[in-house]
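Dear colleagues,

For the upcoming journal club I promised to circulate an example of a predicted protein-ligand complex. I picked one with adenosine-5'-monophosphate-propyl ester because it came up in last month's discussion. The inputs are reproduced below in full, followed by the predicted structure.
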Amino acid sequence: MEKVKFYPVKGYIDFQKGATADIERFWEKEATKLEWFKHWDKVLEWEEPFAKWFVGGELNASYLCIDRHLYSWHKNKVALYWEDEAGNTKAYSYFQLYREVNKFASMLENLGVKKGDRVVLYLPMIPELTIAMLATVRIGAIHTVVFSGFSSQALADRINDTSAEVLIAADVGLRRGKYVPLKQIVDVALKAAPAIKKVVVIKRTSEEINMVAGRDLLYHDLIRDAEDYVEPRPMESMHPLFILYTSGTTGKPKGVVHSTGGYLVYINSTYKWVFDISDESVYWCTADVGWVTGHTSIVYAPLLHGATVLMYEGAPDYPHPDRWWEIIEKYGVTIFYTSPTAIKMFMRYGDERIKRYNLSSLKILGSVGEVINPEVWEWYYKNIGGERCPIVDTWWQTETGGIMISPVPGIELVPLKPGSATLPLPGIDAEVVDEEGKPVDTSVKGHLVIRKPWPGMLMGLYNNPERYKEAYWSKFKGLFYTGDYAIKDEDGYFWLLGRTDEVLKVAGHRLGTAEVEGAVIGAPFVAEAAVIGKPDPIKGENIIVFVILKEGYEPADELKKEIVKEVRKQIGPIATPQEIHFVDKLPKTRSGKIMRRVLKTIMMDKPLGDLSTLEDEASVEEVKAVYEDFKQMMKKKA
Ligand code: PRX
């Protein structure tokens, strides 16, 4: 670590505290870094739990990400490089992006899309996804990107919740050399989501696709009638920019709504602080745009800064394990942002092959989505960063819109501690509290909460203010509940310790146990199901399912296959269970709640602890026996 230059931490901590003491003054200054069509009247209206930022102000995200750059040398610099796993490439200058976005926006208007309408984007990692997002917000419509790995059922659920009428899709996605038939998935989804009136299909291949007359239209036809320019409409600061669904503790995903003004101000400043992003950056975030990390890091933040973004379509290690390092070398990537799961996967391939690549362009490395443990941190630091690049371990959530806890090399680089996300960003009042909501002592585990509103904070949950209050503001009065455990050490550094609730993190993807259970129960022979996350050295967690069969069914591998099929149908391959166990009983409390904690403890071979609320001890014995048999079988197989 000696080679990284550190600065005294005190100056930064004083600055952080000053900003957090007077959030309105602080964020007002940050807001002036964007160009507004109309100045705000009021910085913040805080009626807990609803925050309104920069009230009365007007701006446009598409204008800020593109048009603004046309008045300088940025006009002809590369805004977006795209490459897929087969090595196909595309590049768009800011001017070219501007052209495409305007045409796309005109096409949406020609389809009748107006301010406030929801547009669902079901697209793989292709430039048209960025273009579609910027075009949607250019005319004040609201995008809902649905990760293209989600199944038809998951897509239908999200469409229905937003009651959108327009869907943009591609014929296929590309993964591991195979086409993913996205249009087919759309066709199935729309049987359960009849509100969609128009489907615009971006055709990438000559694959035959089904086109429904009157509903399905080809992008390439529509774009011929599109205008070259569509005025970026001034939007009120609190006009919703997008809805993004994420998993919570119930089976139904939550539609997190982000605002235009607050979100953009927040990500503009925080990406400067955390990544020191500038127009010289070649910024590569390996997430999918379908997650919040991608929204903020592949689209809005880098383009606000006039940086060059790299977008990659494909699996990390396909067609060979060096694909990513090859790309960093090829494009001279300066900022690389990925997940601990990906890093752990590459660690398995060893360090030798990485040495063949010139990674000297890298300046800052980022990690997101899960806890990065110290060994993984050290490996990343040494092998990818060449002991030169600070690692920014960034803690945040779909709900927070942008990064909340992280080192900030763009302001001052505080000493890094592998495994800690370090300190809250300026203006962020984070704390670790006990069950009563009182700050815990140093190094005591507690709940991570945020005590003051911040501009990137979600506006609410779409059409569901009650669930918003319940999910985030009911556990502790006046504190935003993150659902994460953390400790704070003697230097005030935060160490994240995973979720407190029934939310799983599988390879960085957020899934609810209830959501997966709902899908398992979809199999006609399943009476009851319980899902837990079992720690996995690479993926963080694996999905383990316990199933009680309906009468008349006997445990069989065929049924396991059916369950896997059902989960993939209802959610998608990311939710595929790793293990399925058949039992006659599940451990439950006397009031009938499944005790997932007990299942998890057995899976981890740990002492069971307090079982006083358990209804029937025989259920525990059965799970133990089933699991023992399973372990023996695995041993034999090995
Ligand atoms: O548990 C935390 C974990 O990811 C959750 C948020 O997931 P999602 O909304 O999908 O957003 C992911 C990326 C922005 C958090 O509640 N998490 C995120 N970043 C970190 C993390 N856990 C530990 N360290 C992090 N840096």
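Two points we might discuss: DSSP finds 18 helices and 30 strands in the chain. The longest helix spans residues 617-637.

See you all on Thursday,
B. R.
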